[in-house]
Amino acid sequence: MKQVPQLKKHYIAVVVPALKQSRGYTNPHQVPRILKVVLNSGIDAAADKTIIADTQRDLTLIAGQKAVLTKSRKAIANFKLREGQIVGATVTLRGDNMWYFLSRLLVVALPAIRDFRGVPTKLDGNGNYNIGIADYSIFPEISLENTKRMMGLDISIVTSAESDEEGRELLKLVGFPFRRTEAAAPAAAKTPTAA
């Protein structure tokens, strides 16, 4: 018997009924869902083979499936970039691997960021969400002894939501810790003192 990821159980039991109630969906297929998660890490074009191999190994450890090296499509002289040169590594997660990764991201990795106050609330206009992580050593799979230098990581969460509001509500119900948008105090509340 196959084990169902905990976050997927939460999505089916809590998120889908909540979205059906708040948005008035009649068909369960109308409810937005997370389609895939794409992890991407760029590599310096002048990097040696050990840095490339380390980045691929680290991204594979974080994602739980093998990272694919991406190559440049055309040469750009100003960036000292040749056609076919390795410029990054990427992983596309779907299904259970996606749910396991999102669970580790929300429960372990994001709270490990120093002075963490939540993730930005801005989506891309189509209901998809992108997060940039400056240092991927926040993931417990990465040991600091094996990393020679800190690398960044881009995480793209692709949803079937048709608008940013739908996507934001979906991700909030799944458990994303969005920053609170405090109402700005009116400037009139601050009265200047008479001199």
Overall number of domains:
1
Shape: globular
Report the strand count.
5
Topology as H/E string? Answer: HEHEEHEEH
CATH architecture: 2-Layer Sandwich
Helix content: 25-40%
Structural class: alpha+beta
Largest sheet: 5 strands, antiparallel
Separation of the first and last Cα atoms: 78 Å
Task: Note poorly predicted spans.
Answer: 184-188
Name of the top-level CATH class: Alpha Beta
Strand order of the largest sheet: 2-3-1-5-4
Please count the helical segments.
4
Q: CATH homologous superfamily? A: Ribosomal protein L5
Can you describe this structure?
The chain has 195 residues and is of the alpha+beta class. It has one domain: 50s Ribosomal Protein L5, Chain: A. It has a five-stranded antiparallel beta sheet. Helix 1 crosses helix 4. The N and C termini lie far apart (78 Å).
How is this structure best summarized?
The chain is 30% helix and 17% strand. It has four helices and five strands, in the order αβαββαββα.
Which terms summarize this structure?
single chain, about 200 residues, alpha+beta, 50s Ribosomal Protein L5, Chain: A, 5-stranded antiparallel beta sheet, 4 helices, 5 strands, about 15% strand, globular
